[in-house]
Amino acid sequence: MTGAHHAKREMHVDRGEKERVSLNDSVHSGFFQNQRGPFGKGSGLQDGRKTEMPLKWRLISLVMLLLSAFQGCAGTPIVVSTWAFTDAVRAAWDALQLGFSAVDAVVEGCSACEALQCDGSVGFGGSPDENGETTLDAMIMDGTTMDVGAVAAVRNLKDAIRAAKLVLEYTEHTLLVGDQATMFALSLGLNGPSNLSTSSSIAKWFNWLENSCQPNFWRNVNPASNSSCGPYTSIKDLPSSEKFFSRKEEYSKKIGHGSHDTISMAAIDKEGKIAAGTSTNGASHKIPGRVGDGPIVGAGAYADQEVGACGATGDGDVMMRFLPCYQVVESMRLGLSPGEAAENAISRIRRKYPAFIGAIFALNMLGEHGGACHGWTFQYSVRTADMDDVSVFTVNPVVAS
């Protein structure tokens, strides 16, 4: 189902009843969109669709919308994050309340998640690669200047998001990788080197070895990668079409909640400036050296002061081919609501990879947010000034038709 078709369908969907639970959990069918802009019911902008109103008031509403976006909605801070990483969102929110910038808030939030080893998929001690080693990826983007700092496949350094911020602040580069990224960060004062493995991650690796190295990310090799650990040699006479088909059917078997998650976060500060960032330890049992979508600008996250921001999680090897967060922001620029933009980006991937697993949240400069997912149920967390605490929103996958 295309994004356009889904936007039409949204007008008839039963959004259900908000269910207030411990963290204000809200469940919706399809994708969720929360309107917190200056235009209430009957404004013509509710739920991303227009209602009839006099031309005069439509023009006034449009002018107000443009002015609000241009001014960055100063005074309306918000933090949005993938998953129910509520402590990370609280850390980012606390930074905003103390007057820190959106960039600093995102760094603080992601750093908290790294220290807490959120879901085992962020920070040290998670997602061991084929050699049993944990490596980290992170990225931070300033939506005002469009400056970016990122690190990937970082070894022996726990503070990946702070290393990314050092790349942003002290270099003209966008991305540093591997041991050299670690050396760069250490030279500028980050603590380390540190062992990123834990007894838990080593045990997970041993269990994987004992299970004939299943699952793994090899294909078109001998011996068969679905039943052995290798070492492997290439199959050189397999037709290209067969290689492609076999790989597409395997995606959903290797990626799942708890085995391949990312914290992607966006924030708008008190001055109306926006930033986005990510941190992850990548896919469990990845081939050493693999880099996912997290540190790739426009894939794991993206922010533009003129429009808004986006964060993504899921099968990064697939999602990075589509730059979904860049797509989301550009779709919002063209007038789609956050929920519509998120679903449109997901649908573009789904058409090519029906078995992929992934999710996106979107945030515009009015503070409106939405999400979409495919292959799993997605949660994202939000904190604003009119909330007592972090709210967690649940998004169910839309069934394509």
Automatic annotation (TrEMBL):
Residue ranges that the Swiss-Prot or TrEMBL entry lists as coiled coil: none
GO annotations of cellular component type: cytoplasm
Keywords for the protein's UniProt record, in alphabetical order: Autocatalytic cleavage, Hydrolase, Membrane, Protease, Transmembrane, Transmembrane helix
Pfam family, one: Asparaginase_2
Site residues, Cleavage: 261-262
InterPro entries documented for this protein: Ntn_hydrolases_N, Peptidase_T2
BP GO terms, sorted: proteolysis
Record field: transmembrane: 59-85
Keyword Transmembrane helix: yes
Known catalytic reactions: Cleavage of a beta-linked Asp residue from the N-terminus of a polypeptide
Enzyme Commission number(s): 3.4.19.5
Active site: 262 (nucleophile)
Entry GO MF terms: beta-aspartyl-peptidase activity; N4-(beta-N-acetylglucosaminyl)-L-asparaginase activity
Domain of life of the native organism: Eukaryota
Keyword Transmembrane helix: yes
Residues that coordinate or bind substrate: 290-293, 313-316
Gene3D superfamilies found in the cross-reference section: (Glycosyl)asparaginase
Family statement: Belongs to the Ntn-hydrolase family.
Record note on quaternary structure: Heterotetramer of two alpha and two beta chains arranged as a dimer of alpha/beta heterodimers.
Protein name: beta-aspartyl-peptidase
Organism lineage string: Eukaryota, Viridiplantae, Streptophyta, Embryophyta, Tracheophyta
